[in-house]
Model the fold of this input.
Amino acid sequence: MALSPDQVAALDARAREVGEQIGRRLRFIVAPNPEFIGLVAGEEQIVVGGLNRLSDLAAHEVDFTLDDLAAGRRHIVDDEDGDPYLV
Done:
């Protein structure tokens, strides 16, 4: 069950908004196989949340991750190579 274009747009808008709030470039993405979605960060769009199968409630998981990032309960930090990851 793929997400509708409106759902994808809403999740991407929210990811961008939270990204601005925390000083990161965040995007919500749908993989080439539309059954997989995730959250990416940075210019190189490195996956920091997901890629999860939609049947596993992945859209809700992305929403919860964005809530946690916005509230400061989770953070995105850079590893030794400068690649972002979620903690």
